[in-house]
Amino acid sequence: MKRIITATVQDRSGVLNRITGMLHKRQFNIDSISVGTSETEGLSKMTFVVEIGDHQKLEQLTKQLNKQIDVIKVSDITDKAIVARELALIKVGGSGHLHAEIQGIIAPFRASVIDVSRDSLTIQVTGKPDKVEALVSLLRPYGIKELTKTGVTAFLRGQQPKQVTEINSFTI
Amino acid sequence: MKVEAKHEIERTKELRTGSDLLIETLVDAEVDTLFGYPGGAVLPIYDALYRSKAPFEHVLSRHEQGSIHAAEGYARVTGKPGVVLATSGPGATNLITGITDAMMDSLPLIIFTGQVADSVIGTDAFQEADVMGITTPITKNNYQVKDIADLPRIVNEAFHVASTGRPGPVVVDIPKNVSAGISLEKYSKDFHLPGYQPTKSPNPLQIVKLADALSRSKRPLLLAGAGVITAKASAELKEFAERYQLPVANTLLGLGSFPGTHSLSLGMAGMHGTYAANMGIYECDLLINIGARFDDRLTGNLEHFAPNAKVAHIDIDPAEIGKNISTDIPVVADAKEALKALLARSTSMPDHKMWKELLQNNKTNFPFWYERSNELVSPQWLLEQIYSVSKGEAIVTTDVGQHQMWTAQYYPFDRPNRWVTSGGLGTMGFGFPAAIGAQIGAPDDLVVAVVGDGGFQMTLQELSVIKERNLPVKIVIVNNQALGMVRQWQESFYEERYSESLLPKNPDFVKLAESYGIHGLKVDREDEVVETFTDVFSYDGPVVVDCRVVKLACVYPFIAPGKGIHEMIGVTK
Question: Where are the coiled-coil regions (chain A) (predicted)?
Fold first, then answer.
């Protein structure tokens, strides 16, 4: 199962290294990590997307994260109401006559063309991972020359439903 | 002009360096011993030590590994953090084994490593090693001091982190420009650790659940680990076990947390543990683990570990609970606090006399056994004699291997902090330097280093240290001219192909000791043993005793790899 886990950490050098090292040592399979500063000076937020076998492993992951001295808070937000976004940059090949066609494909995704050259164009798309993935698969026939993603960043919505349902909002 | 120059010189005299500030923080942390080895990148710190009148001693090892194992021995015996100082690059990398060892066995250590100057970090400078990168996975936390202003805070944090919660090693890497730099800082005790708040007190509901499980248990068993010793909870453990008449099994590192000679003690559990302890775990219906981490050498095949038991696990480290064994009643707490909370309740238990008797019978009917040779020294018998001559009062340190298991089996520990061994990492070469630290930490106690002929040769250069300081450490070499445990496994699982495990060309350990100016003795007949050790233990100074033992003796009983805790082999002759 895929889980989204967030961690608030002290903004000190080596913290990311310590955390990724721990995950590696304990054989956790990381899909993505995104890190950046937070609303509070001196604190950073990390978002992990992890592929994890069972609840026992998941519990171990959050406990091991929590155990790190510079980690202040760890939450598994997968089953909560959350906003989750990632950014992808996609460079597709093709000469000028395809541009209009590609524009037509990306428009419903609210993606935009941010760079054009004689034989390529670069598209930027932001959204939930499955939306990004859907666009990538639609663009694949045009020949993807380069693709890069930021990894998911996420946090809880301002309001949580009274009863947390078992629906995995990651896929909604 | 002249006046100004003079003024400059006077000011220089008063200046303090980062190193002076470091020493000040060590004094404030009540450090009494610094285990170290000098080198280029820590010269400013050594210079400050020379200039200052710091009220602590520096113990010069002959290899950094000697320093750090000594600090571990010191920490185990005193309960205080062991403090180590080494230079950058090779000095720091020589500490890696000890840091990992301390991490695995939860020993509090503060390790100061020198680092090349800030300006050349990352350029592969002379004696540069990425200490932060190397030590990240093997420390509880690590720091590189970038600014003198951060030095006191970081050192304070290091002491706090290393010695609270689940103890562990903390590395502080100090670039030379920081230790040599001019400090304008006032000393301060401040530190800032918003993310670190170990849970000491147990959740009352979990204690109720545990008491409730106890009130329904017909076959209860306590498993006591080193966490009991760290939490200084031995008295509470004894009271708890006695009040409810609970049989107690110990882990290797937990030996001494409960008196080994107590009628409720089943002895050590695990790979080379007692039949009684292991069958107790196999057949119990409630297993209360206090401060042990369910190491695989204890559990054997997880499928057969306490298969019908409700498992309660008391541990200060939440990440240990449910890591290897699924837990029904998790209690995140300091062992002492948890036991106090349990003792504060009165719980009535169903009669479990039959269960106690069953385990007692196992204990009586299936004790440890060995073939006595009567002429050549049987190693197990040797350990029994060492126990009896020392009246069970010694602090005993060991390396890893056969001699370690024989000591665990034949030297019952009745008190905590008398047993210093490398459990989790299984480090050869640990025992002798650890004995140095133990003797420094407990100067009035008899400290016996039981080592193998293999392991001793890994760190025997520290003989210089005991000579120099006249530390009365007694070194007992259980000499079977082999890497005994390797040889035993080759015998059992590799059809006696003794690949590189025999040491027929060992040095003459007596002459070796003498070359260091240390009293050396050889024992190769049983009838010499008691008299020799009576003399050795009353001798005021270090002694090396080379005990030639039966070469092919094996450690029994044992659980073969992949087997369950109930599948011990060699239980009886």
Answer: none
- CATH for B204-365, among 3.40.50.1220, 3.90.1150.10, 3.90.950.20, 1.10.260.40? 3.40.50.1220
Q: Does the beta-carbon distance from B132 to A9 stay under 8 Å?
A: no
Give the three-state DSSP class for A160: coil
Distance CA B291, CA B253 (A): 10
Which candidate from A25, A60, A70 shows the least CB-CB separation from B137?
A: A25
Selected from 3.30.70.20, 3.30.70.260, 1.20.1250.20, 3.30.1330.30, the CATH number assigned to the domain covering A2-80 reads 3.30.70.260
- B379-555: which CATH topology? Rossmann fold (3.40.50)
* B37 phi/psi in degrees, rounded to 5: -155, 125
Which residue of chain A comes nearest to B161, CA vs CA?
A69
Query: Three-state secondary structure along B284-303?
Result: CCEEEEECCCCCHHHHCCHH
pTM listed for this prediction: 0.94
Cβ-Cβ contacts under 8 Å, B326 against chain A: 56
Torsion-angle region of A28 (φ positive above 0: left; ψ -120 to 50: alpha; else: beta): beta
Fold of the domain built from segment(s) A84-155? Alpha-Beta Plaits (3.30.70)
Strand segments, DSSP code E, in chain A are 2-10, 29-37, 43-51, 71-76, 82-93, 112-117, 120-127, 144-149, 153-156
Rounded to a whole number, what is the distance in Å from the CA of B320 to chain A's nearest CA? 8
Question: What ipTM score was computed for the predicted complex, to two decimals?
Answer: 0.91
Contact B76, B398 (CB under 8 A): no
A70, B141: Cβ pair inside 8 Å? Answer: yes
- Best of B131, B136, B173, B315 to substitute, by most chain A Cβ atoms within 10 angstroms, is B136
Chain A residues with at least one Cβ partner in B under 8 Å? 9-10, 13-14, 17-18, 21-22, 25, 56, 59-60, 63-64, 66-73
**Spatial contact of B476 and B506, defined as CB atoms under 8 Å apart:** no
Q: Is the preceding peptide bond at B557 cis, omega within 30 degrees of 0?
A: yes
